[in-house]
Write a structure and sequence with these properties.
The protein is an alpha/beta fold. It is 41% helix and 13% strand. Strands 1, 2, 3, 8 and 9 form a 5-stranded parallel beta sheet that branches.
Length: 364
């Protein structure tokens, strides 16, 4: 069996706020409608903040899917915060606010939790267990690369570095792309089926999301050079009991990947060609593995550096630590830090920090 998860975040770092209507029109409505019409089961990881922005017709679709058992709603951080950067009180505030919104708007209390950017630390499962969660999504590659815990001694090397170079336009892009495809295909040998039990402050079942599998699906569905839906399915034919796609809904119909736009039809063609039964992620079997997961994310080197090393990010993280109240949620939003954030997204966070300070929502 295979499973499907869609991640939705209308605070997306590289999407202008003025484009939110188009994102809903081009991605959210057609993708959700197509899956529900086909009676395809899937998990939906959407932030509480995003739910509050969705129009009534989309919320109606979600309620229908939940009622029919086709949609499994996950919990997450309310404003897509990078949880390992927050105090434990603020982690819990993010978790609880997100659940409250989903209970109010969708009348559902999630049991599965998706950490934004799959950013994780070993205390998170304890907070999740304390708040009624029984399972958490994690980065599968990070699980494999957690055998050594000190990156200062042994840095994590990406599994397909040439593909990353091609994506960034470094060197000879086509040569890097060809080499990267070979590395990507080779990395699929590391994928294992099913869930794991995480060794953590409080143990919890974890559902791996495999970035390399996501990438194969996206390259095939996007019909990149030397790739198409059938070839992607061929590469993945020996894998079972995994999440076949577990990333952004915005890539389907709205946001191009390196100038290639994935359509709903080409995306679904990968699933159809593979010909596997599609189940909800919670229905995946347990692999029997008990593993430790290092503090990590789903970036190529599995670090948190993207959201911390830049001077603007470091300043936001420092100032956000003193916030309390409503403004804290917007200041903590990861998309102000982002992979390549727009100025307006970053200014939203700085503005929230200033207004909280002026308004007395500040811990001294």
């Amino acid at each position: 069996m295979i499973a499907l998860l869609l991640h939705g975040n209308l605070q997306y770092a590289e999407i202008p706020k003025g484009e939110i209507g188009r994102v809903i029109e081009k991605a959210y409505l057609p993708v959700l409608s197509a899956l529900l019409k086909r009676e395809t089961s899937f998990a939906l990881n959407v932030t509480g903040f995003t739910l509050e922005l969705l129009p009534g017709d989309v919320l109606g679709l979600l309620r229908d899917g939940i009622e029919s058992g086709l949609i499994e709603v996950t919990g997450t951080a309310y404003s897509h915060a990078i949880l390992p950067f927050l105090s434990l009180d603020r982690v819990e505030a993010q978790v609880r606010r997100d659940r409250e919104v989903k209970e109010n708007l969708l009348e559902v209390s999630p049991k599965l939790f998706f950490p934004p950017e799959l950013a994780y630390d070993p205390v998170l499962p304890a907070i999740l267990r304390d708040n009624g969660y029984s399972e958490v999504f994690v980065d599968g590659e990070a699980l494999i690369l957690s055998s050594h815990l000190n990156r200062a001694i042994k840095p994590v090397k990406p599994l397909y570095p040439h593909l990353i170079k091609a994506q960034r336009g470094e060197g000879n892009r086509y040569v890097n792309y060809l080499l990267g495809l070979r590395e990507l295909k080779k990395s699929l040998e590391l994928v294992f089926p099913g869930k794991v039990t995480l060794k953590a402050v409080k143990e919890i079942e974890a559902i791996p999301v495999w970035v390399n599998v996501n990438t194969v699906v996206m390259l095939g569905a996007g019909k990149f050079p030397l790739m198409n839906p059938r070839k992607a399915a061929k590469w993945l034919e020996n894998l079972d009991d995994i999440i076949l796609y577990g990333t952004d809904i915005e890539f389907l119909g709205y946001r191009p990947l390196a100038d290639y736009l994935i359509t709903v039809d080409s995306f679904l063609e990968v699933f159809d060609t593979l010909g596997r039964e599609v189940k909800l992620p919670s229905e995946l079997p347990h692999s029997g593995r008990r593993l430790y997961l290092r503090t990590s994310s789903w970036t190529p080197d599995k670090s948190l550096a993207i959201w911390s090393l830049d001077d603007g990010n470091a300043r936001l993280n420092f100032l956000s630590r003193n916030l309390r109240g409503e403004k804290a949620f917007l200041a903590e939003n990861s998309d102000a830090r982002g992979w390549e954030p727009l100025p307006e997204r970053r200014l939203d966070a700085f503005r929230a920090i200033y207004e909280a300070w002026r308004g007395g929502e500040w811990e001294t």
